[in-house]
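Structure (tokenized):
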């Protein structure tokens, strides 16, 4: 595996990236996240495979909030409920500054909600892999 084109030093210093132990088959991708090296090794020993520590990116819900999409969904819901509007620009025809303000507020609120509830959404996007080990299967003849 090669490192992704993200500044590794910056990623390691950021709270947006965390090190996690992962497991995978010897000839395939890492496909399971574990809480510790010991858990990863124990899991891999069941069938044989590889383990590693992977620097993965945590997602922020706010990165997925786009106010124009949000308003389009709201208009679709309203039109399905029988609402109609008199201008061709839709119900929520607002100036760009108002859109930017709403997007900023929605993203701020999502970040606050995620922090308040301690929610961590870990992606499979990785920056770096270290401590790769091959684990032999335990006695499979039993």
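Design, position by position:
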């Amino acid at each position: 595996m090669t490192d992704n084109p993200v500044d590794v030093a910056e990623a390691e210093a950021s709270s947006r990236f965390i090190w996690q132990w992962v497991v995978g088959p010897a000839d395939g991708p890492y496909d399971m996240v574990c809480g510790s090296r010991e858990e990863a090794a124990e899991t891999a020993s069941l069938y044989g495979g590889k383990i590693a520590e992977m620097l993965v990116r945590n997602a922020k819900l706010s990165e997925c909030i786009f106010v124009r999409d949000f308003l389009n969904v709201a208009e679709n819901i309203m039109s399905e409920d029988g609402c109609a509007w008199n201008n061709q620009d839709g119900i929520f025809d607002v100036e760009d500054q108002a859109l930017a303000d709403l997007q900023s507020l929605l993203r701020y609120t999502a970040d606050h909600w995620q922090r308040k509830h301690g929610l961590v959404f870990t992606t499979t996007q990785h920056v770096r892999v270290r401590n790769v080990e091959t684990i032999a299967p335990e006695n499979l003849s039993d």
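Reviewer-requested clarification: The beta strands are 17-24, 32-34, 49-59, 121-135. Residues 47 and 141 are 12 Å apart (CA to CA).
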